[in-house]
Records
---
Amino acid sequence: MDRIVIGIEALMPSLMAMGLNLMIAVATLIIGWWVSAIFGRWVQRAAQRTSRIDITVIPMFQSVVVWSIRVFTVVAVLARFGVQTASIIAVLGAAGLAIGLALQGTLQNIAAGIMLLMLRPVRAGEYVALSSGSEGTVQEVGLFLTKLVQGDGIHLTLPNSTVWSATITNFSRNPTRRVDIPVSIRYGDDLDAALTKL
């Protein structure tokens, strides 16, 4: 019995250190998630206040900020438990390569989304028509998807690669546009009188 008590007393400092590490790790994780949400909302509000930032970029920029802080938080928590972060980064790199090969279509959508945001052939609030037959008002260009709202109120979600590879007709980019209205006139009618009635 004395040996058990002595063994428990010998384990107490390591158990206390492990419990303290666990509490700090959980607190770090909770605070990191909370800070990432706060920074995400702050970035969104700050970007919406200025007219120099296109509103199309805001959702993607917000998600990049939020997930960067969360990844840093997870790495900090793992480092708290003595896990070598260099090996984690190497494993993440190898896993990223494998996932990248498996998700080529998804990565293609991400690359297309970045190109759409950099070159800006479409912006939020513009009415566009694609050569694929889809058309509507651009609501958002996200990391993977572009959201359109059609004239009848139906929401249309397209992969970014589909939008990027299509021919885009943008009806809202220029403030003025020419509208052609065909009018039929018989051979015997007076052209001048028809023009004055238009």
---
Amino acid sequence: KLGIFVEDMRRSGVACLPPDINASHAYFTVEDGAVRYALGALKGVGEKAMEELVAEREKAGPFNSLEDFATRIDPRLLNRRQLESLAGAGAFDRIKPERAAVYAAAETIFAHAVSAHDQRTSGQAGLFGGNSAEAAPIRLPRDASWTLAQRMAAERDAFGFYFSAHPVDASRHILAAHKVKT
């Protein structure tokens, strides 16, 4: 049903903004006359986990980087598959626009989150007294890239429908010339 609602909004001239870990909430919100897609509406992420993510963002401010995100999230609420869904939907695009690389690094991001959580709960600091989870950069695969079709497929998996583009968009002008209606 969400695909139908998004299409109705677009037909009505109401913009539907993509999910963003620094702007979206667990539920749909209105932002400057547009609707911001809900993090909790993505397939497989869960509203409870997204409520906790939003609560952390509101408590400590926006996430500045993937490292900051991994350091602050509770790995008991998120898993690799949820991170892949967020990345596939483009929720990390504002802090790291290489969507395919973030998707491919979901396991690494999750491992950083587990390590940071273990350090917080054990009360241990890094070797030189600092928080080593913040110092360790998350290495993204350099060769990860998606074609437009792969990007659309990842969005379809995350949203349950095509969000930013559709496979027939390339032929839309031909369909319009033949007066085809969606």
---
Amino acid sequence: MSSALKTQIGEVLIRKAETQDADSVLGIMRDAAIWLEDSGIDQWRVILTPTFLKVVQDRVNGGCTYLASFNGRDIGTITIQWEDPYSWGEKGKDGLAGYIRGMAVLRELAGKGIGRDMLNWGMRVIRENRPFVRLDCMAENQRLCRYYEDMGFHSEGQKTLDNGFRTNLYEKN
């Protein structure tokens, strides 16, 4: 599946990531993780570890990760999963939702609405199959929590994961 988004910078193509794209996906996510860490937000520290490449490869090989490109350059990534028992427990296997994970845009393009456009695209993909869109984010990242709330997501509570990470759970129908 491939589609085009009209964005502030022009037409952005979204396509399913292929095996050879794992390094590009990881690079975009690391760019965001470094910015988060430099901003004092510990949300994506795990992305900076050598073992996270395996997570990205598994998502790409599972066919659930997408790349956004502009003028042939990969600038963003988003993953859509159909289950998320890790963050959502049993509710994460209820068959009623799709889950948006690992969304990132290169920091040099921040503030241009690309993330919002990618999120809206992901919600459309999910709604073609399921009534609810779910996602989670670090509870301490108030800026991101507000962003999701401003996008119409409502809180479904908070969960402390087995690694001690506190995550806010959000849902939208």
---
Amino acid sequence: MRIAILTAVFHPELHPRAFRAYELAKEFAKQGHDVEVFLLTRIKGYDYEQLSDELHIKITIIPLYSRELRAQNVFQQTHSILRCIHRLYRWFVEYFMEGHLFAYSTKIANYLNHNMGEKDMVIALSTPFMDLLGLAKYIHQQYEKRQDKQTVYIADSGDPFYYSQQTKRALYFKWIEKWVYRHFDYLAIPTSDAVSAYSPLIAENKIQIIPQAFNMRDVNLAAKPISERPTFAYAGVFYKDIRNPEFLFQYLCSLEEDFCFRLFLRHRDPHITSIIDKYQQVLGEKLEIHYNVERNQLLYYLSECHFLINISNTTSTQLPSKLIDYGITKRPVYSFDKQSFAPEVFNAFMHGDYKDAMIIDTHPYNIEVVTNQFLDLV
């Protein structure tokens, strides 16, 4: 089968959508399919030709973004008035135009028109939404030419664009998103809890529940925790609104006993960094902070802990991919948000009582299971 995957990010970037695109491409190729990845972002100095040879896939760069692979973002201090002007301008551009959405999606469509070729299945990964808009424009042009009637087009999304809980956008984006999904045969979302968020945008008979997935065959895990003192970890990202960790840090500062909290973050965020820096001064060596750790190494570090914590979203439309990684490590997981956090449960975990641990069944997230779900749509 001829399969194309359109994605903004890919290996070696440490991002859930990069993981998804990479695992799908690798497994499809392993099964003998002809796979081509259309990638929007080139990492400077990275050898994509070698990666292509290793995975037996074709990687085609759509030249929209080019950047270095950084361990963390760099922030520059500017005058407060200039910061306000910049924030206001950025809000205007993001709210009404979503940055380069329209210009870049047109470039994607034009590029695909000249380079796509015949495919049996095309999967476009949202985040950014321009992937879906660009492919929708391409599909629209193909229909006008009365071509490409046999290809199955699948939009893959973890969070709605207009109805996003994180970003508010102008009303007309709702109609643009509906126009986009009208061109796809299916919409793949990671959890059934998110169906209601997409119902205003697409017919429910087009929605398929296809979760995030990983190769679980060659995972290296620690045999036991690294230390006798209670060691726990969090991996992923924090957000100011839906996943703010300040309440947890306040609680940890109240504990007198020794512990080690390992924090694995993808990047620095100005607001979250200011919170972490404030509490690290109090917690000292009890708080370890690591940025941009490669996923296989991260799994090993997580497996060295006694238990893991998940600060859940305040919305039910997203399922953090880190929960799959947590399940793979086979370590107990305490999941909570600001409202449901229970100090007595956390204290029980600190002393080895895991009766309230979250149960994570990793079978549905096995890459072989997920690729078969996609192939069944063709």
